[in-house]
Every structure is written in structure tokens, then in C-alpha cells.
Amino acid sequence: MGCKSSKKDTLAQMNQPSGKRTLDIAIVGDSGVGKSSLVNALTISPSCMYDFPLRQRTLQDECIDPQRRALLPPQDPGRKMHNKMLSNKKKFLAFVEFIKSLQKNVDIKSDPATYFNEVIKIYEKTFSDGGMKEAASEVKKELEELENTELHIAITGEVGSGKSTLINALRGLKAEDDGAAPVGVTETTLNPNAYSHPDYPKVKFWDLPGIGSPGFSPESYLKKVDFPRYDFFIIVGSTRSQEYHVKLAQEIQRMNKLFYFVRSKMDIDMSSAKRDYPKTFSEDKAIQTIRDECNKNLLNFKDSSHQSFLISSWDLAKYDFPRLVETLEKDLPSLKRIAFLFSLPNFSSEVIEKKKSALKSHIWKISLVSAGINAIPLPGLPLACDVALLCGSMVVFYKRFELDDGSLARLARLARKPVEELKAVMKSPQGKEITRDLVVKTIIHTLQCFLPVSSLASAGVSFATTYWMLLSFLDNLSEDAERVKKVLGLEECEAEHLRAKQNWHKT
Prior knowledge:
Structural class: alpha/beta
Largest sheet: 6 strands, mixed
Strand order of the largest sheet: 4-5-3-6-7-8
Oligomer: single chain
Distance between the termini: 67 Å
CATH class of the largest domain: Alpha Beta
CATH superfamily of the largest domain: P-loop containing nucleotide triphosphate hydrolases
Shape: globular
């Protein structure tokens, strides 16, 4: 291949930009090697694969200037649009990084004005020449993807191991509550039964039939329960790990799915040990003895990270349940990890803080969509926003923190306390009070803290105002969640959680 003319029947003319300036490229080679395809690639749709870009740079280096310019791909409208989209995406990613950096490095409470003004500045700089609606549409898809993320958790184990009790505990229910998984000492599950989370219906807990019956086969069992459906398996045992636990786990591992061993009923074990050895009983030693016993059967696994998690379904903050949560957070893909986190009961301040952090990372997305799609000007105010989206998002925040009416009633029932006692410590409006009028009033209050009402309207002001409003609302809700947790009497559980965490690091 070169920059000289050759036989006319092998010439391919490409890119004649203007005047008489031409570039003739000869394509030669054996029959059937793809000469015609290369001509088409050069003249119609230049490729970016393999060494094609290197070929183009080499030709540009060797040709004289007019010919070099002729080599440049044609700037058709589609390509210009594509380049513009790439440019907008780069600016948008830079905007995202700025928001994340600002959240980490600026103390919002001590210097809110600086935060507010910086957000407006970077917003208007990023979208000064367009691209905001495209970015908002992309972010809207991300929010919808999160909201539609499904998580299927399989709970299996031998008869009487406490599978159903664990499912109810994860859903914040007792066996007597409507919709709870039936609990009994005999097998109550003959087929896989799905139980949705009350506040996060996309998260489903599957109560699988008991394992360990005579002739138990992991292969046939997994086929019967529709193995591909589940994101991960929790294998529950209430005594020492049985051989069929390990066989099932090995088959699950062979099929590239996550699994976790759970030793349930630790509260019963500790009570029995204390009764049997009243003078020498040590809870730490008793726990370690059970842990060592459970881990013996895991030595056959090539992956040494597998271990047993000791739990009590009646007190999730004790023993190893918080460590199981941390493990799942590391193992699950991002969207499923967030879905699992949102479904958890608020059994510790750490869980509340994690929920707050996850919601905080999505607030800027909600604000961008509010300012960029379906934004309606608010009378007398220098901004336009999607009030319905903001209202709906705030209602969802209540559910994530278990502060909506349904969750509070469920928590009060579990703690045997009047629901009014829980609501009395909340400083945020009740969930049912989140209406369009309240949202508009909150926006006005937020705006007046930073700008005179007569300020000129801009999308940057709309974004910054709703962003700040949602941040403040989130802070208040997380504080309410802490106050409700205190009323529920979970301080002792919190202390147990911290003590257990210290023991994890020792072991």
C-alpha cells in the first residue's frame, strides 16, 4: 500500500474534500483476500479495530499535507452528533466526580452557602453549551434500573433448622404476622415459596424444601428448586454442619453461585451452655467452640474464604449477622448490594449510616432528573422542577429507613410498644404528610436561605436547591431512625454488635 497511482482498475478514490485535490490509493493483493471489503471500509465506514488506526496514522505521517487532510474521515452529521455525545459524556462524568468530591471535602452544615454556590457554578459550567437533557435522561435510566433491581435469596437447610424464622426476621415479621413464613418443627415447605420484603417487594426470600432426607442428591435438589433463579444461597443449620450441607455447597460452587453457611439458634445454644456449666460458662469460649466445630467441614473447599456465620434470628445484631451483611456487601454486584442493604432492618447505627450513604449517592441524580425532565416552573420562584418526582423520592426515603406508617406499626408490634411512642421522637413530618404543597414549601424555605426570591431563574439554581433540600431531608430522617432505634431498646444490641466486631478481628 502506498501514496502513488497504479492501475486504474485497482484505484479507490476517497475523500475528495474540495477543488482538484485528490488522493489515489492502490489496493493490490491475491484474489479473495478482501480487497473490496477494505475499499468499502476506507470509503464508507472507517474501522477502529485491530491495527486500522495504526495504518491511518502511518499514511498520514508519510503523505504530503494535502493528501494527509484527504485521509481524514468525512465529518458527516452522524459523526458530529457522536462526537458531541462523547464530549457531553466526558463533561457529565467530570460533573459526577466533582459532586462526589464536594460531598467528601466540604462540611455542608458549617458552610452551606459555599456548597450551594459551588454546586451552581459547576452545574452551569458543565452544561453551558447543552447536554443537560441527555445527561438527565441517562441518569433517569440508572434510577429506574436501581428501582427495578430484583434480588432472589435462597434459604435452605435441614428440617427444623430455622429457615422460616430467619426469613421472617429479615423481613421484620413474626410467625403470627400476616404474610409471615410458617414456622414449625416439622417440614412446612414442600416447594420453593417466595416471600417479598414488605417495603422492598423486588427483594424476595425463598424458603426452600428441607435437605438431608434419605437419598438426598444435591444435583436433583437444585434442579427441583430451579437453581438459576437465585442470586445466592444461605445454607442454615442448627447443629454441627452435616455432610449434605457440604455436598450441596460444593454443587452450588461448581455452578458458580454464591453460598454462605449459617449456624442458627445461637441464643438457644448459649442458654443451654450457661445452664449446663453455670460455674465455668464463658460466652466467648462457647462461641469459639461452636465456630471451630462448624468450620471443620469447610476445609475441603479450595476457597478458604468460606466460613460459618453464627446467628440468632431473634437478635440479628448479636453474633455474626453483621459480619454476614458485610460479606454480602463485598460479594454482591453494586445494584443488588444496594437492594439488599435497603431491605435490612435498622438493627445498628452502622446499617443506618450505610443506608444514608447509599441514598446520598443518588440524591444528585434525582435533582438532575428533576431539573432536566418534566421540570415545571414554580410560580414566583426562580426555578423549575419535577415536584412529583421529589415528593415520591421523599416518600421512598421513609421506607428505606423504616419510618413510614407501615414499618413503624410493624416495629412497634415487634417491640410491644405503642406506635405513638415511636412517632413521638420523630422530628420530620409523618410520611403521609409528604404532599406536593409541603415539598413546594420546603423548596421555598431552602431557596430563601441562599438566594433572594427575585434572583434570575436558572437550571443551576433548580438543581442546587432541590439537591440541598434532599440532603437536609436525608440528614433529618437518619437522625429520626436513630431516635426510633433508641426507643425500641436496641442499645444493648448495639453494644453486642460492637463486641462481636472486636471478636471478628481477633479471629
